[in-house]
Write a structure and sequence with these properties.
By secondary structure, the chain is of the alpha+beta class. It contains 21 helices and 18 strands. A hairpin with a 5-residue loop joins strand 13 and strand 14. Helix 5 packs across helix 8 and helix 12 packs across helix 20.
C-alpha cells in the first residue's frame, strides 16, 4: 500500500505532463472499454430477442378451450406473424407474455409497429381483421420493429387449426440468427474488435514508456526494492485503467440509450437488452485494470532489474523471433486449402476444416502481431546498410534500435485490415446461402387480388425490370383428370427478361415453349386446345401451335413448367384471368430485393407476395449480419485509429530529446519530418502488406471450405488494397505535425 501511495504522490507531483499522461491513459481506457462493452453486448441483444420470441410461441395441447392457427407472411421485406385464436369452450385461456387477455372474436391485439402501419395505411386493415383493442407490451415482442398480432376469430373460419395448450416453447424457436451463423459472427467480431482492443489497451497502459522507465530506474537507484518499484508503476496504470473503465461503461450506457431508439438496418432493440450484464460489467471493471497491471509488470521489469542500463541508455535486446513462427503453420494451412482449390480439388466438407481454418486464422493473426517487430528490425537493418540517404538511414537505425514501438503503432490497423478480409468472406458466404444464384429475382402475386391501378404501379417500382402473367387452364372440377396446361402472357422482351436465353420468339403470336433442361408437358401436344377462364365468366381457348420458342429458364422460377406463350394482345382489353399469378422481375441483389419488397408492401399491403426462391427470414438474417459486421468494423476502425494516433503522439513526445539533439547537430526541419514519416510508414507498409495477403488467403480458405460457388474474392481484393493505401497516406500526413524543430535544452538528458 505504501508503494501504491508513493506512486500516486509521484504522479500528481510530477507536473502537468504527468497528469496529462494519466488523463490520456484514462480516456484511452474509457474508449476501449466502451468498445469492449459494445462487442460483448451484441450476443446478449440477440439472445434477449430470441428468448422473448420463444416464450410467446404458441404450443399445442390436449383438452383445451381454444384452437389457433399461425400465419407467416412477408410485409415488404419484413416478416409478419399473425396468430388467429378461436374459443371452443368456456373456461380460462393461457395468456402470452405482453398481453393481459387474449382477444375475442372480432378483436385483435397488435404490436406497436404494426399498429402504426395500420393507422398510417388504411388499406393494410385487411391484414388484421377485427377491431384493434390493445397493443403487445415489450415482454411479448422480439424488438420494437416486430410485426406481430393476436387475432380473435371463430373455429369455423380456421382450416388446419390446432388445439391451444400453452405459450412458451421448451427450446429456442424462430431465432434471429441461426446458431451456426451466430458462432461465425462471434468469431469474426472477436477478430476485428477484441484482438485490436487488447492491443489498444496495452498501448494505453504503456504511454510514455521511456520516461516512466527512467523515473522507475531512478527510484530503484535510490533504494526502492524491485517489488515496490513494480508496484509503483502498476499503481498508476491500474488506477488510470479503472477510472477509464468506469467512464467507458457510463459512456456506453448513454450510447446504448440512443442507439436502441435509432437502431441499425435490420435490427432494433429495447434499451434494457443493450445494458451490460453483470458478467460484462465485471469483465470491463476488472479485466481492463488486470491487463494494465500485467502490461505494467512486463514494461517496468527492465527498469526495476537493470536501472543503470535504463538511465544510461544501454543497448536494447533484439526482438524475439518466436512469435513470427506462428505464421508458418497458419499460412501453411490456409495456403494449402487455396492450393487444393487452384488444382481443381474440392477440400470442402468434413469436421477437420471446421477446426483447422479458424485455428489457422488465429495463428496467422497472432503471427502478424508478434512477427511485426523482428521482421521490421531485420528489414530496417538491411535498408540502413545499403541506404545513401541521410533521412532514410536515420529512420532505419532508429527503427532497428526500437522495433517494439512499431508493434504499438500499427498493430491495430494491421489487425483491422486482416479482419476486414474475414468479414468480406463471411458476407459472401452468407449471401450465397441466403439468396438466389440466378441473376433474376421473381415476385409472384395473385392477379385477382390486384386492381388495374395496383398492377400499373407495381410495374413502375424502382428496380422492377419486367412483368408477366402465369395462367392455368380451366377445368370443371379438380378431381377430373383432364388435360391441363400453363401459359405465360408476355411479350418476347418480357420473356427474355425472366429467362436466361430465348430463341425463335415472335411477338403477337401464340408459341409453344420448350426448355431442354426441364421435362415438357405431355398434354400440350400441337393441335390440342386449352380453355382459360376470364373474370367476366367467358373462356379464352388457346390452341397449341407447331411453332416453338426455346428458352432457358432459371430454377426455381415461375416460368418453369408453362407450355404456351400467349401474347398480351390476344387477351380482351379490360379483362383478367381468374387463375393467374402476376409476376415481377428484378435483379437478385439483396438491396434491390428489399427495395422491391418494400415497394410491393406499400402498393398492395394486403396481397400475399411470394419472393420465388428466397425466404424472408434469410433476407432479414443477412441484413442483420451485414449490419452487425459493419458495427464491428466501425468499432475496429475506431480502436485501430485511436491506437495509431495515441502511439504516434506518444512517440513524438518521447523523442523530443532525440529531435532536439539532431536539431543541434544541424538537421533541417525537412529531414526530421522525413525521418518521422519513414519511421511510421515502414512498419505500416510491412504490416498492411502482410495483412492484405494473409487476409485474402484466409478469406479464400474460408470460402473454399464453405462449399459455395465463390472461392476467390477478386472483387474485394482491390478494395482492400485501396483501403491499405489510404491508411498509409493518412498515416504519413498525420505524422508530419508530430515533429517540431524547437531546440529546448531541457529535452536533452544529462546523466
Amino acid at each position: 500500500m505504501n508503494a501504491f501511495v508513493l506512486g500516486m504522490r509521484l504522479l500528481w507531483g510530477s507536473g502537468r505532463r504527468a497528469r496529462a499522461r494519466f488523463l490520456l491513459m484514462a480516456l484511452g481506457s474509457a474508449l476501449g472499454v466502451s468498445c469492449l462493452a459494445a462487442a460483448l453486448t451484441i450476443p446478449a441483444i440477440i439472445a434477449a430477442n430470441d428468448a422473448r420470441v420463444t416464450h410467446r410461441s404458441a404450443e399445442t395441447g390436449e383438452h383445451t378451450n381454444a384452437v389457433f392457427q399461425e400465419f407467416l407472411d412477408p410485409y415488404g421485406s419484413r416478416p409478419l406473424r399473425r396468430i388467429f385464436i378461436a374459443r371452443t369452450g368456456p373456461g380460462p385461456l393461457p395468456v402470452p407474455p405482453g398481453v393481459k387477455e387474449l382477444p375475442r372474436a372480432g378483436e385483435a391485439i397488435v404490436s406497436p409497429k404494426l399498429g402504426e402501419i395500420l393507422a398510417a395505411n388504411p388499406r393494410a386493415a385487411g391484414l388484421v381483421p377485427g377491431r384493434v383493442t390493445g397493443t403487445i407490451a415489450p415482454a411479448g415482442l422480439g424488438g420494437p420493429d416486430d410485426l406481430y398480432a393476436y387475432i380473435g376469430t371463430r373455429p369455423g373460419e380456421l382450416t388446419g387449426a390446432a388445439p391451444l395448450g400453452h405459450f412458451g416453447a421448451p427450446y429456442t424457436q424462430h431465432e434471429l440468427l441461426e446458431p451456426s451463423t451466430l458462432d461465425i459472427l462471434r468469431f469474426t467480431i472477436g477478430c476485428i474488435v477484441l484482438l485490436p482492443l487488447v492491443i489498444f489497451l496495452s498501448v494505453c497502459a504503456r504511454l510514455s514508456g521511456e520516461s516512466r522507465a527512467r523515473r522507475l530506474a531512478a527510484l530503484r537507484l535510490v533504494g526502492l526494492s524491485v517489488k515496490d518499484t513494480l508496484r509503483v508503476n502498476a499503481g498508476e496504470s491500474v488506477v488510470a485503467a479503472f477510472v477509464g473503465a468506469v467512464v467507458g461503461l457510463v459512456g456506453y450506457l448513454g450510447v446504448n440509450e440512443v442507439m436502441a431508439r435509432v437502431g441499425i438496418p435490420g435490427l432494433r432493440w429495447f434499451p434494457a437488452d443493450g445494458r451490460p450484464e453483470t458478467t460484462t460489467v465485471v469483465v470491463c471493471l476488472l479485466g481492463c485494470p488486470a491487463l494494465a497491471w500485467i502490461v505494467g509488470q512486463f514494461s517496468a521489469r527492465r527498469a526495476a532489474q537493470s536501472p543503470i542500463s535504463v538511465r544510461r541508455t544501454g543497448e536494447s535486446k533484439p526482438p524475439r523471433k518466436y512469435g513470427a513462427f506462428l505464421l508458418i503453420p497458419g499460412i501453411g494451412i490456409i495456403g494449402g486449402y487455396c492450393l487444393l482449390s487452384a488444382m481443381g480439388r474440392d477440400p470442402s466438407g468434413g469436421s477437420a476444416s471446421a477446426v483447422l481454418v479458424p485455428g489457422a486464422v488465429l495463428m496467422t493473426g497472432a503471427g502478424l502481431v508478434f512477427g511485426l517487430a523482428p521482421i521490421t528490425a531485420w528489414l530496417s537493418r538491411r535498408l540502413a546498410a545499403v541506404s545513401r540517404s541521410l533521412p532514410l538511414s536515420l529512420a532505419m537505425r532508429r527503427t532497428e534500435v526500437d522495433p517494439g514501438s512499431a508493434l504499438r503503432v500499427v498493430t491495430g490497423l494491421v489487425l483491422l485490415v486482416f479482419g476486414a478480409s474475414l468479414a468480406q468472406g463471411v458476407l459472401i458466404e452468407l449471401d450465397q446461402v441466403s439468396r438466389r444464384t440466378a441473376p433474376v429475382q421473381e415476385y409472384s402475386l395473385p392477379e385477382t387480388e390486384l386492381s388495374a391501378q395496383q398492377r400499373t404501379r407495381l410495374t413502375r417500382l424502382s428496380g422492377v425490370r419486367a412483368h408477366g402473367l402465369v395462367v392455368d387452364s380451366w377445368v370443371a372440377s379438380i378431381e377430373d383428370r383432364l388435360p391441363r396446361a400453363q401459359g405465360i402472357v408476355a411479350t418476347c422482351a418480357q420473356l427474355a427478361a425472366f429467362t436466361g436465353a430465348t430463341h425463335g420468339c415472335v411477338d403477337n403470336k401464340v408459341l409453344r415453349i420448350e426448355d431442354p433442361a426441364f421435362l415438357s408437358n405431355e398434354d400440350a401436344r400441337p393441335g390440342s386446345s386449352f380453355p382459360f377462364l376470364l373474370g367476366n365468366g367467358r373462356k379464352m381457348t388457346v390452341s397449341v401451335p407447331q411453332e416453338t420458342v426455346v428458352i432457358r429458364a432459371y430454377d426455381p422460377s415461375e416460368f418453369v413448367g408453362p407450355s404456351l406463350l400467349i401474347p398480351p394482345s390476344l387477351v380482351p382489353r379490360g379483362t383478367q384471368f381468374t387463375d393467374a399469378r402476376f409476376v415481377l422481375a428484378s435483379s437478385s441483389d439483396p438491396a434491390t430485393v428489399r427495395s422491391v419488397l418494400d415497394g410491393i408492401g406499400a402498393v398492395a399491403p394486403t396481397v400475399s407476395v411470394e419472393p420465388v426462391g428466397i425466404v424472408i427470414g434469410s433476407l432479414v438474417q443477412l441484413t442483420v449480419i451485414r449490419s452487425l459486421l459493419v458495427v464491428g468494423m466501425v468499432l475496429g476502425l475506431v480502436i485501430g485509429v485511436a491506437a495509431f494516433v495515441v502511439s504516434v503522439a506518444d512517440r513524438a513526445l518521447e523523442r523530443r530529446g532525440q529531435v532536439t539533439a539532431l536539431a543541434l547537430l544541424g538537421a533541417g526541419a525537412g529531414t526530421l519530418r522525413v525521418v518521422q514519416v519513414v519511421q511510421v510508414l515502414l512498419p505500416l507498409v510491412v504490416g498492411l502488406g502482410a495483412a492484405v495477403v494473409a487476409g485474402w488467403l484466409a478469406e479464400s480458405s474460408y470460402l473454399i471450405t464453405g462449399g459455395g460457388e465463390v472461392h476467390w474474392d477478386w472483387e474485394g481484393l482491390p478494395l482492400l488494397v485501396v483501403c491499405a493505401l489510404g491508411v498509409m497516406l493518412a498515416a504519413a500526413v498525420a505524422s508530419v505535425p508530430m515533429v517540431r524543430r524547437h531546440i529546448d535544452p531541457e529535452h536533452i538528458r544529462r546523466d
